[in-house]
Amino acid sequence: MNKLIILAVIFFSLSIISCSPTEGKDTKEKVLKLGDNSNIADGEYVSRHKNGKIYKTARYKNKKLDGVQEVYNKRGKLQNTINYVDGKREGESVVYHDNGQAYRITPYRDDKINGERKKFRRDGKLWSTQNFHQSLPENNLKEYTESGKLKSRPKFVINQIDNLKIDGSYRINLSVKGSYKKVKFFEGKLKDGKYFSKLDAFPVSNQKKNRASISIHLLPGHFMMKKYDFIAKITTHANNSIYIHRQVNIAIEN
Questions:
Q1: pLDDT, tens digit, 9 for 90 and up, residues 135-169
Q2: CB 252 within 8 Å of CB 165
Q3: What pLDDT digit, counting tens, does each position of 206-228 carry?
Q4: Closest CA relative to residue 242, chosen from 154, 179, 118
Q5: How many CB atoms lie within 10 A of CB 90?
Q6: What confidence tens digit (pLDDT) does each residue in 55-72 have?
Q7: pTM
Q8: First-to-last C-alpha distance (Å) of the chain
Q9: Which string of DSSP letters, residue by residue, matches 77-138?
Q10: Which residues contact 61 (CB under 8 A, 6 or more apart)?
Q11: Higher pLDDT, 9 or 78
């Protein structure tokens, strides 16, 4: 009876909308988590949709997720699988298209994304690849057309406006050429020269368009020469992110 009560509380508290991934829209892995004081016993647990079909299976050992967890949609189609070892994601996690083809394969090690993540189209053709280290994305994203051709990388452009303002500010324009879902600009460098980390980059524009104009403030009466580092975070229509670093030298006598 206690086991049944625990199961009811766990699965009643989890209300996650089921949806199948479609091209250009990501579906995150759905994770069942327990409180620190849970008395759940070892074994396999199954929850169901209101229509009676299986929603989720999860396996536990020593009160921690251990083994493969599966999530199904209301029609009984497998949505994603995640493998756990001692409560941490380990190995490959797979998200599926509603036709059963793999959509995204993500490698985990010690609960972090490590290795090459791949995405596939509904027909099984490779859509994109990108490396990760400790869940930090590398700037080596590759996307492919439906015919299998590698897409060209976007161009990140920095234009200097040689016009010092009265308040001592100097304007520069940042822009990305091409059509993309979203673009954000940061001041900073890529970690180890290739990984994007929010700890090493600071937003310089809240605009989500392909261009931004920002101000750099200079000390009046001084010759100014300084290097500035900028990163363009470009979200593609396939819902991937490309990170491009550019450095610009600014030299002004005011």
A1: 999 999 999 999 999 999 999 998 866 555 555 56
A2: no
A3: 565 777 766 666 555 555 567 88
A4: 154
A5: 17
A6: 999 999 998 999 999 999
A7: 0.77
A8: 79
A9: -EEEEEEEETTEE-EEEEEE-TTS-EEEEEEEETTEE-EEEEEE-TTS-EEEEEEEETTEEB
A10: 42, 67, 86
A11: 78
- pLDDT at 112 (0 to 100): 97
CB atoms within 10 A of CB 223: 10
Residue with token string 């994603």: 80
| 137 and 148 Cβ atoms separated by less than 8 Å | no
Tracing tokens 């979203």 back to the chain, one arrives at: 182
Determine the residue type at 137. Answer: P
CA–CA dist 10, 177 (Å, integer): 48
